[in-house]
Amino acid sequence: DGGITQSPKYLFRKEGQNVTLSCEQNLNHDAMYWYRQDPGQGLRLIYYSQIVNDFQKGDIAEGYSVSREKKESFPLTVTSAQKNPTAFYLCASSFLGTGGTEAFFGQGTRLTVV
Amino acid sequence: QKEVEQNSGPLSVPEGAIASLNCTYSDRGSQSFFWYRQYSGKSPELIMFIYSNGDKEDGRFTAQLNKASQYVSLLIRDSQPSDSATYLCAVNPPGDDKIIFGKGTRLHILP
Question: Reduced to 3 states, what is the DSSP secondary structure of residue B83?
């Protein structure tokens, strides 16, 4: 089945730790995105990538890092510099085309600082 | 700053009635518009997209686009309790490789 897979579904982080969230897609999509969602809030863009080995900062990139070594994979690292990381993290992917195309989401990772 | 605005709600609609959700956007040249449904604790699910002025119907859902007034709306006919969710409007402005989301409207269908 084609889709976009995030893992783990739940993740707990201790203060000062870096953690990496996985995102894999087999839809042959060009673009991949990471969003953060806080309770009762909308989606805020962290990073996005249109092509392998290239990515751009979104609106709230501080304290996060990404890589795009393969078209299918776009992992997100939440570093110790992110002071308030508890949130719901969503990965999405889409084709690139004139006027844009729709994005599809993974099931999300809920990160909690303990 | 490119923006997508939605009323946060909650919007309460009786079961069987028509729910009307609205969204405005700031970039006049935007061409692609999307509606996502998000249940509590779940990820957003694409339910409609529209590229041209006018109406697009899919089952109980109708998306309406008015580029001159820069708004896009979603109508849900014969509302069901299972339609209770947050509805996110999203726009892909021209020359922009990002999709910009509104903050969403919470919809409650009253049995």
Answer: helix
Whether residue B68 has pLDDT greater than 70: yes
Count contacts between A and B (CB, < 8 Å).
55
Q: What is the DSSP letter of B102?
A: P
Between vectors from CA B74 to CA B82 and to CA B27, what angle results, nearest 5°? 135
Residue B83 clears pLDDT 90, i.e. is over it = yes
Please tell me which of the candidates A88, A90, A103 has its beta carbon nearest to residue B99: A103
Identity of the residue numbered A94: S
What residues in B contact A105, CB-CB < 8 Å? 43-45
Q: Do B43 and A48 touch (CB under 8 A)?
A: no
- How many other C-beta atoms can be found within 10 angstroms of the C-beta atom of residue B16? 12
Which pLDDT score, from 0 to 100, does residue B1 have?
A: 66
